[in-house]
């Protein structure tokens, strides 16, 4: 929540119902980036007209302008706490100055802790529960993440493949991403991973899946990132690092949490599958 928005609500003359809405907005600023006016009204058991009056009493023309302002302020807040959007050459120059003034181990430790903390603070238990249910119940699970994001994508591919049926990583051979997703449907889901400076390919893959009616699970840095508009379930986190590249640790942290939630729900149903895989990997010592 930004100080400007807090001040706006503080100075507004609001009714009892509008104060209820205001309290929810102050405590759920990130969620409001994507909630419709109807969803907000239903969540608080108030009328849709109460929500509309609330936005107008704050000085907005309606809910659309209100939500756009929330998104802009939230994105500004996130950007001010993250350096991940800078181009690599700029980040390299900045990082060299930091590296000469600090202990590398201690500074990387602090940055990594803050990145992981952002993943914990921004992504609720309910979000992990819903996303893991969606993945489990989808017929086919597609996973897309290019370049450095392939780290988390590969982690998810291996562990979900060992846990669930019909899990397919993005191809790296003669098939392109759009060949790969050409059969995606509303029975399926796509896990799309992209951080600054954002892969256009991954964005188009998310758009393709969304248009087909598939659920889209997105891992990115802010609710206003290019992929976010297609998200059924949106995970965000910082990816700051001490040098020119984005840290992959927080994305891996979220990926591991997702796999853990799924593993708990699946239980021992994949035991036979694991035995089959182990029989052959052991014979080749592919550990």
Describe the structure.
With 287 residues, the chain is an alpha/beta fold. The chain folds into two domains: 3-80, Winged helix-like DNA-binding domain superfamily/Winged helix DNA-binding domain (Arc Repressor Mutant, subunit A, Orthogonal Bundle), CATH 1.10.10; 88-283, Glucose-6-phosphate isomerase like protein, domain 1 (Rossmann fold). Helices cover 56% and strands 8% of the residues. It has a five-stranded parallel β-sheet, sandwiched between helices. The longest helix is centred in the middle third of the chain and has 19 residues, at 104-122. Residues 131-268 form the SIS domain. This is MurR/RpiR family transcriptional regulator. Pfam families: HTH_6 (PF01418), SIS (PF01380).
Topology, pairings included?
Blueprint: H1 3-11, H2 16-27, H3 37-44, H4 48-57, H5 63-80, H6 88-99, H7 104-122, H8 125-137, E1 141-144, H9 150-161, E2 167-169, H10 177-180, E3 189-193, H11 200-211, E4 215-220, E5 233-236, H12 249-266, H13 271-283
Parallel strand pairs: 1-2, 1-3, 3-4, 4-5
Helix pairs in contact: 2-4, 3-4, 7-12, 8-12, 9-12
Domain HTH rpiR-type: 1-77
Domain SIS: 131-268
GO molecular function, one term: DNA-binding transcription factor activity
The name of the CATH superfamily of the largest domain reads Glucose-6-phosphate isomerase like protein, domain 1
Strand content: 5-15%
How many structural domains does the protein architecture include? 2
Helix content: 55-70%
**Radius of gyration (Å):** 21 Å
Strand order of the largest sheet: 2-1-3-4-5
Query: What is the CATH topology classification name of the largest domain?
Result: Rossmann fold
**Number of strand segments:** 5
* Major sheet characteristics: 5 strands, parallel
String of helices and strands: HHHHHHHHEHEHEHEEHH
**Tally of separate helices:** 13
Distance between the termini: 46 Å
Shape: globular
CATH-level-2 architecture of the largest domain = 3-Layer(aba) Sandwich
CATH top level class name of the largest domain: Alpha Beta
Mean pLDDT: 85
The unreliable regions are none
SSE-based structural type: alpha/beta
């Amino acid at each position: 929540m930004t100080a400007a928005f807090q001040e706006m609500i503080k100075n507004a003359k609001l009714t009892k119902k509008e104060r209820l809405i205001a309290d929810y907005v102050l405590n759920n600023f990130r969620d409001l980036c994507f909630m419709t006016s109807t969803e907000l009204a239903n969540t608080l058991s108030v009328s849709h007209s109460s929500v509309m009056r609330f936005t107008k009493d704050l000085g907005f023309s309606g809910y659309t302008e209100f939500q756009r302002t929330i998104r802009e302020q939230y994105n500004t807040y996130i950007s001010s706490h993250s350096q991940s959007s800078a181009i690599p050459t700029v980040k390299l120059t900045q990082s060299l100055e930091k590296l000469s003034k600090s202990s590398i181990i201690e500074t990387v430790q602090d940055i990594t802790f803050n990145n992981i903390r952002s993943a914990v603070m921004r992504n609720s238990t309910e979000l992990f529960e819903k996303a893991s249910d969606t993945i489990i119940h989808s017929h086919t699970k597609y996973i897309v993440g290019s370049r450095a994001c392939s780290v988390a994508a590969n982690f998810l591919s291996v562990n979900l493949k060992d846990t669930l049926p019909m899990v397919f990583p993005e191809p790296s051979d003669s098939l392109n991403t759009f060949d790969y997703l050409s059969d995606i449907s509303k029975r399926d889901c796509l896990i799309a991973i992209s951080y600054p400076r954002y892969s256009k390919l991954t964005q188009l893959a998310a758009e393709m899946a969304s248009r087909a009616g598939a659920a889209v699970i997105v891992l990115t840095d802010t609710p206003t990132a290019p992929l976010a508009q297609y998200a059924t379930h949106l995970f965000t986190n910082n990816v700051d690092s001490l040098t020119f590249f984005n840290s992959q640790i927080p994305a891996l942290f979220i990926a591991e949490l997702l796999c853990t939630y799924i593993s708990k729900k699946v239980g021992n149903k994949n035991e036979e599958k694991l035995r089959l895989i182990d029989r052959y990997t052991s014979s080749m010592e592919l550990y």
